[in-house]
Amino acid sequence: MRQVLVDNARRRLAEKRGGEAERVDLPDVALSPELAPVDMLALDEALDRLQRLDPIALRVVELRFFAGLSIEETAAALERHPSAVNRDWAAARAWLRKELEPQP
C-alpha cells in the first residue's frame, strides 16, 4: 500500500511538470483516522530514515498505518507483546510527526 501511495504522489508531481502520462485515479484510500493527511513523498523519505534507525518500528508503522491492523493484530504478526508494539507505535508516530513538521 505504501508503494501505491508513493507512486500516485510521484505521478501527480510529474503531471504538474507537464507530464503527458494518462492519469489514472486511485479510489479514496482510508488512512488511519488519528493521522492527518501528509505529503506521501515526504512520508516515504521519513520511513526510509526510520528503517535505518529502527526497523521494528518501521514494520509497526507499515502494519498499523498502511495495512490497518490493530495493536493486537500487529503484535501477533510480529510475534511481540502488544505493550511493546504499543510503545513502538507511539514512539514512531512521535518521531514521524517531528520529521514531517514544516521546517522554519
Task: List the main descriptive attributes of the protein structure presented here.
single chain; mainly alpha; globular; 104 residues; Arc Repressor Mutant, subunit A
Any overview of this molecule?
This protein has one domain: Winged helix-like DNA-binding domain superfamily/Winged helix DNA-binding domain (Arc Repressor Mutant, subunit A). Helix content is 65%, strand content 0%. The chain has helices spanning 2-16, 40-53, 55-66, 71-78, 82-100. Helix 2 crosses helix 5 (82-100) and helix 3 packs across helix 5 (82-100). It starts with a helix and ends with a helix.
According to CATH, the homologous superfamily is Winged helix-like DNA-binding domain superfamily/Winged helix DNA-binding domain
Helix content: 55-70%
Poorly predicted spans:
26-36
SSE string, helix = H, strand = E?
HHHHH
What structural category characterises the helix and strand content?
mainly alpha
Which overall shape is indicated by the principal axes computed on the Cα atoms? Answer: globular
Give the strand tally. Answer: 0
CA distance, first residue to last residue? 31 Å
Summary of the model, kept short:
The protein is mostly helical. The chain has helices at residues 2-16, 40-53, 55-66, 71-78, 82-100. The model is unreliable at 26-36 (pLDDT under 50).
